[in-house]
Amino acid sequence: MQDLKVTLVQADLAWHDAEANLGRFGAVIGSLTGKTDLVVLPEMFTTGFTMEAREHAEDMSGRTVARLLEWSRTIDADVTGSVIVRESGRYYNRLVWARPDGRIVTYDKRHLFRMAGEQGVYSAGDKKILVELKGWKLRPLICYDLRFPVWSRNVNNEYDAAVYVANWPAQRSLHWDALIKGRAIENQCYVIGVNRVGADGNGTSYSGGSIVVDFEGRVILDNKNEECARTVSLSYDDLAEYRRSFPAWKDADGFTLA
Known about the structure:
Order of helices and strands: EHEHHEEEEEHEHEEEEEEH
Number of domains: 1
Number of strands: 14
Helix content: 10-25%
CATH class: Alpha Beta
Number of helices: 6
Structural class: alpha/beta
Low-confidence stretches: none
Shape: globular
CATH superfamily: Carbon-nitrogen hydrolase
Mean pLDDT: 97
Largest sheet: 6 strands, mixed
């Protein structure tokens, strides 16, 4: 199995200014041709984490999805991040995963952040997805999902890496670090977490900390508090050997979600 090159793009998002954010990310992504297999952007990367869905939602045929597909095709790599989507009269915090061949995979955030009133504005998703890339199986999730281990549970090594896109506030950065490592250790997989920096229009501060952790909880990459785009290579052979030599996954409890 080939190693997987993943690029984490950590940025200060322009509040409610999709065109400015698309321009900023487009410039970064355009420089990545031939350097990566997957580009990961933050949660609500065109607007910041906002409850003003009516004013800023787009359809799946809108400019942001079109731009994701264009970027993916241009650099011949998958590109993903979450955006506000309007569909059938409802609003979703939707992760859109664009592929070079024009395919799109989507995941709607399951756990809506009630402390900001997200559950009163957006509709929750009820389906997990798997994305296959270069033989790897990836599980995309969004921000607050990180706190709920049952939803992230890696039954029978169903996935090799979990990908969390986030707007995770600085005041709870300790939780971010601890939970990312916990999900990696308990699920015997890599975990990739992409956050933002700066402050949003509500005055909430973000300290970045976009991170990649391996299956033993070891930090492979930590972006700290700065705008950056950094690429890391993940070894499938190392993952497979660890699962073989320490097969705790075989003793996991079975469960079903109500």
